[in-house]
Each structure stands twice: as C-alpha cells, then as structure tokens.
Amino acid sequence: MEHLYWDxxxxxxxxxxxVELRGVPAxxxxxxxxxxxxxxxxxxxxYHGGYWESSPTILDVPYDARWYLVxxxxxxxITATVTKLVD
Length: 87
Fold this sequence. Notes:
Blueprint: E1 4-11, E2 16-22, E3 26-32, H1 33-41, E4 48-52, E5 57-60, E6 65-73, E7 79-84
Antiparallel strand pairs: 1-6, 2-5, 2-7, 3-4, 3-6
C-alpha cells in the first residue's frame, strides 16, 4: 500500500499538526499505533482527519499517545509537508 507517512512520536493531547498538500487532493489521517498497524495490515481502522482539497490542514491530537500521520492520494503524485505546531 503506497502512502506518505510520518512517525510523529509521542504527542501530548491538543498538539496541533499542520499538513501542507501539494499535487492532488488527499485523505489525511492521524492514527495512534494500533490504528496505524490495522491500516498497514489492511484491517478496519479509525482515524482523525478527512479528505482535503486545499491546504493547509490542521489536525489536533485528541489524547496523549504515539501518533502517525498518513497522507493518501487518490490519483497522481502527491507531496506534503508536516509541522508539529504545539507540543
């Protein structure tokens, strides 16, 4: 499964993550370790985020944990820049 991802490491709840998309619209998913593993395994998973056609997108970490950010483009090549705003 091709996707862009960032291991954000341990994040405190309310940390904000800014995602700048370039290329095509994409699904931006913020997942904890268990959900990211389910995503990789092709199992059912939950995420915080959604489908965005414009940038920047800002997501807030809902609780203290280790987090991954995944960017899935539906067609074409996509690039993204990710910045943790508050920790």
